[in-house]
């Protein structure tokens, strides 16, 4: 198991402690101090203290055009920040093995690690994340030969990890695990060259830092932490995630179809619930 996977596992165990961190922040002004540190002159101090925990002493290169990331400079909703990641196929003709998404100042900085199957064809990937304070959002790609390349963008946001849930908890439980898949033909895709899929999963993805509006007690952490998307038995991508993926996880990505096998999705949350669904491949969308 990779170092980043270990961090994600430890993240799950530390989410209760993260709730205590929020209480300390409310008393001591932790969030405002973090914002003051980064608002006018973004600093790499947090990242410099974090990166060895995630990647040990492995060298991390500048992206050199291999990978790019986009997010709003100022988020409209800190709990639903869109993030778009692109891989340049000319720089990585064999694709990449994995991408680790990190939000420096979040209580659990490793938002997710995405691992891609051989010949998956993924060169564009987007999702939505929580951003707890002004922070760099980083994408670190691992190439097939084990090299690491990093890109980053700075996002101004506040309180994304503790923002109230969009739905009430009863409604969230009633629809939890429901999935929807949209298929886009190459001509309708973002790059105009390869078909895309958009996967939407109903799940509260509680961070452990949100409060119940009636009791004001912290809602226990409860989120999807493992996900796999397959075409038949062939992996397109898998994910191990923490508390930073937004409520009702949403992923859009291009891919390389192989045959006519259906698209299959399996997910597991931190309570051990398992969800799965599948859809026939819409050949008209290829």
From TrEMBL:
- InterPro entries, alphabetically? Fuse-rel_SoxYZ, Ig-like_fold, Ig_E-set, SoxY, SoxY_sf, SoxZ_dom, TAT_signal
Q: Which Pfam families match?
A: SoxY, SoxZ
The UniProt record lists the Ig-like SoxY domain at 53-161
Gene3D superfamilies reported in the protein's UniProt record: Immunoglobulins (2.60.40.10), SoxY domain (2.60.40.2470)
The record places domain Sulphur oxidation protein SoxZ at 191-278
Q: What is the protein's given name?
A: Quinoprotein dehydrogenase-associated SoxYZ-like carrier
Q: Which organism is it from?
A: Pseudaminobacter soli
Lineage of source species: Bacteria, Pseudomonadati, Pseudomonadota, Alphaproteobacteria, Hyphomicrobiales
